[in-house]
Write a structure and sequence with these properties.
alpha/beta, six-stranded mixed sheet, six-stranded parallel sheet, 22 strands, 29% helix, globular
């Protein structure tokens, strides 16, 4: 049994968009999961093997990138880059969700090959965690010829994600809707490409296409990079209860419109955040954090709410035991503060000023991954190991 204590927390962001900030100042972690949350008296009750002094800075759940296109390990042929997942860790990302291994060289498109790739991606991502990041790989891309039994077979092998509908040959509601029903029947979470085409082979998908297909997640509702019109966004918001994914490489005007519309309807729990990377826009290790900063500084959402979009909202959408700082959850955290020179007095104020906070520490399953980000600006105050 191992225990970690985090004390002297200045701001604790819970990940729960309905109650985003806690007054607690101390967290106790036991064997990789949150044991207790409260004040510093917990350190007297629970003796810890290691204690982190947050130095009055902000502790939040580790960020979840809801939209990544991996292949195997930490290499992407899309941008011929090694180490992009580990680099994202230094932007506070501790969990990634595959939206389909679409960039795999020679990607098979027959049913047998499509299933094999999804199974390989799923199982390899369970065995390899670049930098410690929890990658949920192996999102099956819908191709013509798949039948209900294929989804049953995939589910038996542990595959539970359908990559964004529209990346494969199944790119209209008539073909996709039956497959989505088969997938959901077998416990899959389904995401769907939305808006204009992103790469050769993808399709333009409208609000009506999304509504008729009925996925769980509207992928890159703000475009990837070409977005649907504001009235199309409004149609999806009004006529569905689907999760609405914002991405870094999308349209910022539509991102702002989406957040403000959902905020006005008191439905902020629907918004999640992804990077949609590696993509034609490149690899942006701070992509999730940059999206949080934009939302916090340019929309009606607060910084704490924006962090919840990229943590608890995504965890609940996909049924993951991360993303919320509460007892029994996996102990994945990012510790951050205002960057040196910011007009913001803390990480949240810095985000609302449009700045990128300085990340001083990332923790996964109660293990410290690093003690200074190589990608963010330096934090005004950094957490230290006592």
């Amino acid at each position: 049994m191992s225990r970690l204590g985090i004390k002297n927390i200045g701001i604790l962001v819970t990940g729960d968009v309905k109650n985003p900030i806690s007054k607690a100042t101390t967290i106790i972690v036991e064997d990789g999961k949150v044991l207790k949350i409260g004040d510093e008296k917990l350190l007297d009750e629970f003796k810890c093997d290691k204690i982190i002094d947050a130095k009055g800075t902000t502790v939040a759940p580790g960020f979840i990138d809801s939209h990544v296109h991996p292949v195997l390990g930490d290499f992407t042929p899309r941008q011929n880059t090694i180490g992009f997942i580990n680099s994202s860790l230094h932007g506070g990302v501790t969990t990634m969700i595959s939206a389909g291994e679409a960039h795999t060289p020679g990607r098979p498109k027959d049913p047998a090959g499509t299933k094999a790739l999804a199974i390989l991606g799923h199982k390899s991502s369970k065995n390899a965690r670049p930098g410690g990041v929890k990658l949920h790989g192996g999102a099956v891309i819908l191709e013509k010829g798949l039948v209900e039994k294929d989804f049953e077979e995939l589910a038996k092998e542990g595959v539970w994600l359908v990559g964004e509908v529209g990346l494969g040959s199944v790119n209209n509601p008539e073909l996709a809707a039956p497959m989505v029903k088969w997938a959901k029947k077998n416990g899959f979470k389904v995401m769907m490409h939305t808006g204009g085409t992103s790469i050769p082979g993808s399709s333009t998908i409208t609000a009506d296409d999304v509504i008729k297909t009925d996925p769980d997640v509207v992928s890159h509702i703000n475009g990837g990079p070409t977005a649907i019109a504001p009235e199309e966004v409004d149609k999806i918001i009004e006529n569905t209860n689907m999760a609405l994914e914002l991405v870094q490489c999308g349209n910022y005007k539509i991102m702002k419109h989406t957040v403000n519309q959902v905020k006005a309807k008191d439905q902020l729990e629907r918004i999640i955040v992804g990077n949609d990377s590696p993509s034609g826009s490149g690899i942006i290790p701070l992509g999730v954090l940059r999206t949080i900063s934009y939302v916090a500084s340019e929309t009606d959402a607060t910084a704490a709410e924006a962090i919840c979009f990229a943590t608890g909202n995504t965890a609940r959408t996909y049924g993951l035991n991360v993303g919320l700082i509460e007892e029994g959850r996996e102990a994945d955290f990012v510790i951050m503060d205002a960057p040196l020179g910011s007009i913001g007095e803390d990480a949240l104020k810095a985000l609302e000023a449009g700045d990128i906070p300085g990340v001083s520490m990332a923790i996964i399953d109660g293990e410290i991954m690093f003690t200074k980000s190589k990608n963010t600006p330096p934090a005004t105050h950094g957490a230290v190991i006592c």
